[in-house]
């Protein structure tokens, strides 16, 4: 046997062994907490009203660092009891009992949501005062985290409170009696101003004449006084004439003055009634203000009750935490094409990858595969034809041209600056499967990947192995072998792809602008 004939099976076997070893390493790493090693553990328990999203071996974190796991979850009365293991070098304090129900400055444990798709964990704070908790003690302080549903419920409660407040204000200031009183007051003020304006306009010439006559009298008196006693007779005659003239003017103006005074008196009467109505309205406003200050009614409850303000602040904090988790989520869009040399066909893949952090990702792919989907149906047929067996088995293989999809959960671990190992599992091209990734160089420019899936389509599962090299920040080339362990279906392929993350998309939109209709 020639050496070349032996090398190909040897390489395939070596690749399979490497893939199995990487898969075993990934499963072993994912199933335990590598950060705790052989550290001694202490066991505690606590109670929750709701443990939705938590599972056995879910992680426990403190300041973002894993410090323990969940050992067991079971029902204790009408609450859920959660048994946990925490690193023995972490000291937990019981706290000081308080009337509110929680131990002040004691250890607390809270259920928190790590991502928007429902990945939950427990957040632990050790506390600072009180008795040191021993192995087997209970952590009394539990804090319930706010998810999207609770956030929306609280927003609905605030909306209903605001609607009640606006309804009360509309009832006080929007009634027919209040509107009629305000309109009557404005109407009376308008009549008073019009009457005063009419009086001044009508008597203006006569008042000017009176002022001029008084000025003339003053000048004449001064002149007579200067001339001396010899002009007394003349002064008396002039004074008599002036008096007669003044009497004539006053006699002519008496009727108009009396009419003006009567009009002014009526205006003042209406003004008094308007002021009385205004005082009544101001008294009502004062009564309402006093009730609000005393906390009566919906408005008073909204202004004076600190619970509403605390609830609003809590909702804003929860909303801020929720928005921060969403904004920290990195989104990567990928499009690649592969040319299969044996079948001389193209395979196209559109991928969407969500990364909450560098060690975890969720991947969705939409695959246009020239192989389509193959289904095998075996039937037992009874026949009355004498020329054939009365009972025979018929197998039909059907291949349909339809799209496939992949939905995977992956984790990766940085072992060195130049080496990162990762694994994934889930649905691969509409079938269950697992995969592994090896990233080389600090920026993972060179990656080697392998997927094992489609366990029922052929004699052996479908093993696909390939490598990719990223020569630009957003572009890469790839090549590999598809269906390695099925010789009759084995094929080689080469391909290329482009990849954009959310930062690239923001830069692209900033440069080109957002299209508008």
UniProtKB/TrEMBL annotation:
Stretches assigned to the Mce/MlaD domain: 42-127
InterPro entries hit by this protein: Mce/MlaD, MlaD_Phospholipid_Transporter
Transmembrane segments: 12-32
Keywords: Membrane, Transmembrane, Transmembrane helix
Domain of life, per lineage: Bacteria
Pfam families: MlaD
Protein name in the entry: Mce/MlaD domain-containing protein
């Amino acid at each position: 046997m020639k050496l070349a004939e032996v090398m190909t099976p040897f390489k395939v076997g070596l690749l399979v062994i490497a893939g199995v070893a990487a898969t075993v390493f990934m499963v072993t790493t994912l199933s335990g907490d590598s950060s705790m090693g052989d550290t001694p553990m202490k066991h505690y328990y606590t109670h929750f009203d709701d443990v939705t999203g938590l599972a056995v071996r879910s992680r426990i974190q403190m300041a973002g660092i894993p410090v323990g796991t969940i050992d067991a979850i079971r029902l204790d009365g009408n609450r859920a009891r959660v048994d946990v293991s925490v690193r023995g070098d972490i000291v937990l304090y019981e706290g000081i009992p308080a009337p509110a129900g929680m131990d002040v400055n004691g250890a607390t444990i809270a259920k928190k949501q790590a991502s928007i798709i429902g990945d939950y964990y427990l957040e632990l704070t050790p506390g600072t005062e009180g008795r040191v908790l021993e192995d087997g003690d209970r952590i009394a302080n539990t804090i319930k985290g706010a998810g999207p549903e609770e956030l929306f419920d609280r927003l609905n409660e605030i909306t209903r409170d605001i609607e009640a407040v606006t309804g009360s204000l509309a009832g006080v200031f929007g009634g027919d009696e209040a509107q009629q009183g305000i309109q009557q007051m404005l109407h009376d003020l308008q009549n008073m101003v019009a009457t005063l304006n009419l009086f001044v306009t009508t008597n203006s010439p006569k008042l000017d004449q009176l002022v001029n006559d008084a000025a003339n009298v003053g000048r004449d008196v001064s002149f007579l006084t200067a001339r001396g006693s010899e002009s007394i007779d003349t002064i008396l005659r002039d004074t008599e004439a002036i008096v007669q003239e003044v009497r004539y003017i006053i006699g002519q103006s008496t009727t108009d003055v009396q009419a003006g005074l009567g009009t002014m008196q009526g205006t003042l009467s209406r003004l008094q009634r308007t002021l009385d109505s205004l005082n009544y309205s101001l008294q009502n406003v004062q009564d309402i203000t006093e009730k609000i200050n005393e906390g009566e009614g919906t408005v008073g409850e909204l202004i004076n009750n600190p619970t509403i303000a605390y609830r609003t602040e809590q909702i804003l904090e929860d909303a801020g935490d929720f928005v921060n988790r969403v904004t920290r989520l990195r989104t990567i869009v990928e499009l690649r094409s592969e040319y299969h040399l044996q079948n001389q066909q193209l395979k196209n893949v559109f991928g969407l990858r969500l990364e909450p952090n560098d060690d975890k990702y969720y991947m969705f792919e939409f695959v246009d595969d020239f192989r389509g989907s193959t289904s095998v149906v075996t039937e037992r047929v009874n026949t009355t034809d004498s020329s054939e067996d009365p009972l025979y088995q018929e197998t039909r293989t059907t291949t349909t041209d339809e799209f496939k999809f992949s939905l995977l959960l992956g984790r990766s671990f940085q072992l060195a600056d130049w080496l990162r190992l990762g694994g994934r599992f889930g649905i691969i091209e509409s079938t269950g499967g697992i995969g592994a990734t090896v990233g080389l160089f600090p920026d993972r420019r060179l990656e080697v990947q392998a997927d094992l899936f489609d366990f029922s389509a052929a004699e052996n599962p479908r093993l696909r192995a390939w490598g990719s090299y990223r020569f630009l920040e957003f572009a890469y080339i790839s090549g590999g072998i598809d269906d390695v362990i099925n010789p009759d279906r084995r094929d080689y392929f080469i391909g290329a792809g482009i990849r954009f993350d959310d930062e690239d998309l923001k830069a692209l939109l900033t440069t080109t602008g957002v299209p508008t209709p």
